[in-house]
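Throughout our pipeline, every protein is held as a single compact record rather than as scattered files. The remainder of this section carries one protein's record, kept here as part of the documentation.

===
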Amino acid sequence: MSVVIPAIDLRGGRCVRLVQGRADAETVYADDPVAVARSFAEAGARRLHVVDLDGAFEGLPRNLDVVTAIVQAVDIPVQLGGGIRDMAAVDEVLRRGVQWVILGTAAAENPALVEEACRKHPGRILVGIDARDGKAAVRGWVEGTGLDAVELAREMGRRGVREIVFTDIARDGMLQGPNVEALGRMTGTGLRIIASGGVSSVEDVRVLSRIPGVSGIIIGKAVYTGAVRLEDALAAAAEARRGPGPAAVSRPAGRVIACLDVRDGRVVKGVRFAGIRDVGDPVELAAAYDRQGADEIMLLDISASAEGRAAAVDVVRRVAGVIAAPLTVGGGIGSVENMQRLFDAGAAKVSLGSAAVARPELIKEGADAFGRERMVVAIDCRRRPDGGWEVFTHGGRTATGLDAVEWARRAEALGAGEIVLSSIDADGTKQGYDNELNRRVAEAVRVPVVASGGAGTLQHLLDGFVQGRVDAVLVASMLHDKETSIARIKQFLRAAGVPAGEPEIGARASGPAAEGTEDGTEH
């Protein structure tokens, strides 16, 4: 799903816009950036893009107090770029509540820093690639590098980056429309691309929303000049997401998420939430799937809710330490304090299930505290004999009477940034997802939907995207049983027309999975 992200460029503590990045072509639009941020949030924005222009020109953050004030004033996540060129700066920016750090000059000049940052702060590092005539520019766009922008993006993918902010400098601030051709080359890397520069109309937003692999659309001057109402841009992106059929729906690069169900410190798997069997060590398996190129890892402590406790922090910390992919953690998360401990241990997102049903306001509390894009709501359900699906909790043991589609709508309204749908009827059967369920929920909400439970073949995964209209697929048994690998899954999906990131086998080897077979495990 493409998200419209309004931009706030800071210079001297004020909200400004430059033309093609030139410091001598500045227009001041507001003296109070915090008020601007509030207005964007009130208009419905779900994310803010902030650039410290002074920092970009001078090489270190210069407007952090203003950024902190923005973060504290709005309840939506903020991404920040400009002058962040060492780990101390990365740490400080994140400490102040920024959700994503954008590394630009540092990415071109110090790729090792990017890799280190991705490992230390999984899921929270973006790379900004600003290109002039296809070549990356740095230091506030004033210096060329000679580096091919697409090749730089591929290198960043090898370093652990999953999402790129791509700006065509020639289009920035010109209101001439985006460079769709250049964006097409960038999305060909398999990374998620946030498009920046040139948006001049609502139609531009529609066009970008329909490009597979474009996960976000930054809009700046068009909003400030009144050429585009932010509300209209947001509506256009939502319309593209909810189009009349699968072929018309805008999709980011099809995400493949490796799922680890953990009990007593071991990865297990069952059929229809029963018949549990041991399949391995969570650290070794997470490292293996990360090495194969999993877009995300999901770790679910499946006994936590039933036992009345939160997910095991020590397991989360050990898994987060060996992967570059974002880590989502679920199981027994009943408070904001539980969430904070998991984020501190390395989780990028948390998944709320039974606790959210018991106390729905928990979703809002988490979204208010950490941003809705870090809140995942997991919905486990069974098909009703008379039609529809009923939500179950506590590992599929407790019926709730809730309708799954209505609960998904309510969860979104409360602040869920993503829905993970598990069909208990299909779970572990390897007979395919319940795509009628997936499609009904995907059509009912505007946040990404992840299919879970039942995939046994590559065709089942493809059916999830095409028939179920989901944004991502969760894979467990097929990987645990070594029937396939992330690499093969993505190759199959790309051949079928679903954009899936090109995995870099061996490029991110680490920890226990650094030696051995293609999938990073020993036979």
